[in-house]
Amino acid sequence: LVAQVLFLRELMLFKWRLFMLKLKRWILFCVILSCNYCFADTGVLKDYIPDVEKVGSGNYKFLFFNVFTATTYAPMGKLSLDKPFALQLCYARDLKGEDIAKKAIEKIRSQSDKVSDDKLDLWQSELSEIIPNVSNGSVLTGVLTKEHETLFFDGNWQLLGRINDKEFANHFFGIWLGKDSSDTKLRKQLFGDVNT
C-alpha cells in the first residue's frame, strides 16, 4: 500500500511538471509571436530611415486598459524630431478609424492654439480617409520622411496614405513625442529613457 501511494505521488508530480513545462512553452510562444507581430521589420523602414534601429517602446493606457503599445525607430537608435523616424502603434483594442482620427485632432487642438480650425478640419478629413478600423493586434506605422512628409502603413506594410505637410507632421507626432505631450512617461520611453 505504501508503495502504491508513493508511486501515485511520483506520477502526479511527473504530470504536474509536464503540465508546467508545456505551459511555460506556450507562454514563451505567445510572447515571441506577439513581439514579432507588433514590431516593425526594420528592413522596410530602411527605405525611409538610414541606419534604422529601435529607440524605445511603451504602453498607452486609458483607465487601466492598454490601448496600444508604441515603438519608435530612428537612425542609429537616436530619435531627433527633425530627422526621419517611425512611430509604430500596436493596438490592444478595437477602434474605428474615424474615432482615431478625431482623437488625434482633439489632442493636437489641446496641445496647440496656433492651428486654425479650418486646417484642423482638413487634417481630420485626411486622417479619416487614411486610418482604417483596428482590432486587437492591428499595427499602424507613421513614418516621417526626410522631406517631412508623413506616410502611414498598415501591419503588412501597405501604404495607406500620405500627408505632405510639415506643420501636420510636427503636430501629429507631437501628440506622443512633443514636449507638451499629455503622457510624459510614454514620451520618455519613446525617446529611449529606460529609467521610466
Question: Mind explaining what this structure looks like?
Answer:
By secondary structure, the chain is of the alpha+beta class. It is 45% helix and 22% strand. The chain has six helices and six strands, in the order ααβββααβββαα. It has helices spanning 2-38, 42-45, 97-111, 117-130, 166-177, 184-190; strands spanning 52-62, 65-75, 85-91, 139-144, 150-153, 159-163. A six-stranded antiparallel beta sheet has the order 1-2-3-4-5-6. A hairpin with a 2-residue loop joins β1 (52-62) and β2 (65-75). α3 packs antiparallel against α4 (117-130) and α3 crosses α5. The N and C termini lie far apart (59 Å). 27% of the residues are buried. Residues 31-37 have low confidence and may be disordered.
Structure, briefly:
By secondary structure, the protein is an alpha+beta fold. The chain is 45% helix and 22% strand.
Features:
alpha+beta; 6-stranded antiparallel β-sheet; 6 helices; 196 residues
Set out the fold topology.
Blueprint: H1 2-38, H2 42-45, E1 52-62, E2 65-75, E3 85-91, H3 97-111, H4 117-130, E4 139-144, E5 150-153, E6 159-163, H5 166-177, H6 184-190
Antiparallel strand pairs: 1-2, 2-3, 3-4, 4-5, 5-6
Question: Largest beta sheet: what is the strand line-up?
Answer: 1-2-3-4-5-6
Major β-sheet profile: 6 strands, antiparallel
Look at the helices and sheets and give the structural class: alpha+beta
Summed up, the helix count is 6
Poorly predicted residue ranges = 31-37
Query: Which range best describes the helical content: under 10%, 10-25%, 25-40%, 40-55%, 55-70% or over 70%?
Result: 40-55%
- Radius of gyration (CA) equals 22 Å
Characterize the overall form: elongated
Element string (H = helix, E = strand): HHEEEHHEEEHH
Measured by DSSP, the beta-strand proportion falls in: 15-25%
